[in-house]
Amino acid sequence: MMASSAHKQQRQLHLPNICVGGGAAPPPTPSNNHPSTSASPAADALSRLLHSLPSPTLSLPNTRTRSPSATRPPLISLSNPNRNEQILSSASQLGFFQLTNHGISSQLAHSAELEALSLFELERDKKLSCFPKNWPLGYEAEEEEDEEGNGESFCLDSACYSDSNELNLTSLREFTRAMEKVGLKIFEMLAAALGFQNPLGDDPTRYCSLLWMSKNLHGNKPVLSGGFYPYIVGLHYQIRPSKHTLIADAGSVPISAEVDSILVTLGDIAQVWTNGKTKKVRSGRPMGGVGDEKSKSDDSISMILLVTLPIDSVVFPLIPKLDISNNNHGDDAENTEDDNNNSEGQGQSHDDEEGRKLFESFSFEDYAWRVYHERLLFKDDPLDRYRI
């Protein structure tokens, strides 16, 4: 019996104290309970190990993560004489910037927004009859549409045409055409800075504009309606303080733009035309901004104007303008552009600095249909299949 009690006591002395707590007593060890002359070599080793360990404490990993702070896009004024270089710098590094002194009044933007709101207040049958679907134009609603209309969107042409004479869209039409002029001017300056002949020129048959509208509901959460639509330049007038999440080449970028500025984004068509010299932002189908806490309202509209291509276009890298002084054949910029259009990028070539083109030519209609319907917004870059 005496032997059993001694054996039990010996076992307790060799077991570490596993209780957790900052104020717990240190675990009993052979070194502080028995003389060293009676301790075994194993006990001495365990004692040294336990004394070298810190007092046991309980801690939980910090799982709280902060939302990334919003980036303020570069601010560029159309009245700045260095605007071409500033646009080129922002386009090549980011793919987006803010534009001021653009000539579009806030009064016109607010009037256009009120007319856009009136469209969402129409009965569903009226929306369908006034704006029949003619892809990508017309009225569209997600199948999961709730009673408040979340998931609805309108896509109108630059004339804001409807099949009803009862709708007054005068301000919306004026706003759309004013935004289109700004978008064309931006790409003209970008082409000049890069040394490319502007393929749009003054010919309205070479481009078209689409106004995408969605209503922000449920606390101004962004409305994502499927995939996106390819474009050259996108413009979003900042009617009120708002934040946006852009899907850029580098991933999701939260940004905050100034009131009455125009948030300008460069699209995938601009990236192909410039042979990869500009970054791009995914947009097209409505992606509404997230309003500040002080400005949240159910009566806010996301309106994005896209300068894009006619559906039957062919997309390919553009040829830089020839240096007339070094051109023995005397080809001018207009002939260069015509040759480019006729050859679809396969004729005379002035490749990029690496000596090669980055993209092959492709059908705009095929590309637009695929990225619009296959919901590729957060997947791999759909332009990868056309890279050389």
Q: Which features characterize this protein?
A:
single chain; about 400 residues; alpha+beta; Jelly Rolls; eight-stranded mixed beta sheet; 14 strands; globular; Non-haem dioxygenase N-terminal domain-containing protein
Describe the structure.
With 388 residues, the chain is of the alpha+beta class. It has one domain: B-lactam Antibiotic, Isopenicillin N Synthase, Chain (Jelly Rolls). The protein is 28% helix and 17% strand. The protein is built from nine helices and 14 strands. It has helices at 2-14, 41-52, 83-93, 106-120, 124-130, 170-194, 268-273, 333-343, 364-373, and strands at 75-77, 96-100, 138-141, 152-157, 208-215, 233-237, 242-248, 251-257, 262-266, 281-282, 290-291, 301-308, 314-315, 362-363. The strands form three sheets. Strands 1-2-9-6-12-5-4-3 form an eight-stranded mixed sheet. Strands 7, 8, 10 and 11 form a four-stranded antiparallel sheet that branches. A two-stranded antiparallel sheet has the order 13-14. Helix 3 (83-93) crosses helix 6. The longest helix has 25 residues, at 170-194. It is globular, with a radius of gyration of 32 Å. Residues 1-39, 55-65, 145-149, 218-225, 286-297 and 322-350 have low confidence and may be disordered. This is Non-haem dioxygenase N-terminal domain-containing protein. It comes from Citrus clementina. Residues 1-82, 327-354 are annotated as: Disordered. One of its GO terms (molecular function) is metal ion binding. Residues 31-61 have a biased composition (Low complexity).
